[in-house]
Design a protein that fits this description.
It is a single chain. The chain contains 10 helices and no strands. The chain is mainly alpha-helical. Helices cover about 70% and strands about 0% of the residues. It is globular, with a radius of gyration of 20 Å. The chain folds into 2 domains: about 100 residues, no CATH class; about 80 residues, no CATH class.
Length: about 190
């Protein structure tokens, strides 16, 4: 007789969970942050690395001299390093986690988007792309992203990180309310 997934124990059962206790995840992220400081003496963060990687990638086509002549990249040297590997492994870890838990699915238009905005793939892709540009631009203006400020900065009790973190949640709530409101809902 097979046992149900909820009653299985051991490491494989732990990895196959569909959801985790948020407190356990928080502790895990905190430990990961400590390990990042211990091993590479750098905080967890991604938005700076995305811009550094994009500068490095652009240099393959136009040369590093032209890239570093740009005002932004003259201060944030384009590179491919630890942070790039961290960024890529975050995506690999998310994919692996979804595969192990059995929750992986490929959808061009998520059901929640389709219910509010229709099944149009082009509208969804354009909106996601523009949203990504806006959030990355905002993260660079703020000097960090949700991982840089929200995890590393708040763990270090940086005031700027707490301001960013609170502002991010407040703007996220307002954006979600506007994006996914019912026709009868008023903000």
């Amino acid at each position: 007789m097979e046992s149900s997934p909820c009653c299985q124990t051991g490491p494989s059962a732990l990895l196959k969970r569909k959801s985790w206790n948020p407190y356990a995840v928080g502790v895990g992220i905190g430990v990961l942050s400590w390990l990042a400081f211990l091993v590479v003496n750098k905080p967890i963060g991604m938005s700076t690395e995305i811009s550094k990687f994009s500068g490095w990638f652009a240099s393959l086509f136009v040369g590093m001299e032209r890239v570093t002549a740009n005002g932004y990249w003259s201060g944030t040297k384009p590179s491919f390093g630890y942070e790039t590997i961290f960024l890529l492994m975050t995506a690999v870890g998310a994919l692996l986690s979804s595969k192990l838990s059995g929750t992986f699915s490929f959808e061009k238009v998520p059901a929640v988007w389709s219910a509010h905005h229709g099944p149009g793939v082009a509208k969804r892709m354009i909106t996601a792309f523009l949203g990504g540009i806006i959030i990355l631009y905002g993260a660079r203006l703020a000097g960090g992203c949700t991982s840089g400020h929200g995890i590393s900065g708040t763990l270090q009790l940086a005031v700027s990180s707490w301001v960013f973190f609170i502002s991010m949640f407040a703007s996220g709530i307002v954006t979600a309310a506007l994006t996914f409101r019912n026709k009868t809902t008023r903000l």
